[in-house]
Design a protein that fits this description.
The protein is an alpha+beta fold. The chain is 31% helix and 31% strand.
Length: 75
């Protein structure tokens, strides 16, 4: 990930975060699990960091994989 504009995807549970990472990596979308910034949420300890340019491609994949998303923030 070399772009400086990222999207942080938050989840209700860490299980959904881990599943999202696997699903996106299997679809060749670069992503990384990182700690959730405390100013964004305290629901789950990890979130997924992806390049903003990949957000449009990632969302339908996560939806069809039944990954529940809590929130999406651009950082």
């Amino acid at each position: 990930m070399t772009s400086q504009q990222f999207t942080v995807i938050l989840f209700y549970t860490s299980n959904h975060a881990f599943r999202a990472e696997k699903v996106l990596k299997d679809s060749d979308i670069s992503c990384k699990l990182v700690p959730v910034p405390r100013h964004l949420s305290s629901e789950c300890g990890v979130c997924l960091l992806i390049e903003q340019s990949m957000q449009e491609a990632a969302m339908p994949i996560l939806k069809t994989s039944h990954v529940e998303i809590s929130a999406i923030h651009k950082v």
